[in-house]
Amino acid sequence: MIDGGKWIYKEICVKRHFHYLLAFPALVLYKRDKVSKINSDIKRFLHYTSHNECNDAAFMCLMSEDARFRSIFYYRMYKKKNILLAISRKLLPGLQTIEINGKIGGGLMIHHSFAIISPERAGKNLTVLPGVVIGRGRQDIHSGRLRPVLGDNVFVGANASVIGGITIGDNVTIGAGSVVTRDIPNDCTVAGIPAKIISKNKMERH
To answer: Which run of H or E residues covers position 104?
Structure first.
């Protein structure tokens, strides 16, 4: 008689190896193009894996098991219009509930499965929780921008909105449910509708 636990374990292993095979076209792209921002993204996601460093194995694990990471990877590779990218999208699709546009630095982290992330540009280590909207709004009269610019190490809480041609500084935490329509300086926490500074802080990384 076959032990039930061993049978389930073998089935899980087979499925995992099958998913790793599906991620092979993406691995070819990753190794060929060597986009440094992708490595920074992998480092932010490592705690979701059994890996301790950024390498091919960690990449394969994330591509095969984490649809959020796949969405970020496809965003990074959007200019690479080739058959390998098309095959990878077909075999291992990203999340249709995550929209990513604009110029975003390495180390992007998206928690859960719904967000609209469309800044003019954003720095490194941007962290986004579910329900966030970053995008178009009132035009800035000086720059002419319609979308926000975010600095490094910005944390955007659940269901917060950052809209218009505003500027968000480095090391800024935006509280859950906040609506940000004005410039925010470096090193502070904001909350509310409209968002106001509630504390000053110095954060190296979220």
So the answer is: strand 103-104
In this predicted structure, what is the pLDDT of residue 80? 73
Which stretch of DSSP H or E encloses residue 7? helix 4-22
What residue type is assigned to position 160 of the chain? A
CA atoms within 13 A on the CB side of 107: 14
Please tell me the pTM assigned to this model.
0.85
Q: Is 89 helix (H, G, I), strand (E, B) or coil?
A: helix
- pLDDT for the residue numbered 2: 46
The helix or strand, by DSSP H or E, that contains position 199, with its residue range, turns out to be: strand 196-200
CB 119 within 8 A of CB 149: yes
Q: How far is CA 179 from CA 158, 168, 172, 174, in A?
A: 11, 13, 14, 9
Query: First-to-last CA distance in the chain?
Result: 51
pLDDT tens digits for 76-125? Answer: 998 777 888 999 999 999 999 999 999 999 999 999 889 999 999 999 99
Q: In the prediction, which pLDDT does 59 show?
A: 93
Q: In 3D, which of 85, 82, 79 has the Cα closest to residue 37? A: 79
**What does each C-alpha distance from 105 to 23, 34, 38, 75 come to in angstroms?**
24, 15, 10, 12
Q: What is the DSSP string of 20-88?
A: HHHTHHHHHHHHHH--HHHHHHHHHHGGGSS-SS-SHHHHHHHHHH-HHHHHHHHHHTTT--SHHHHHH
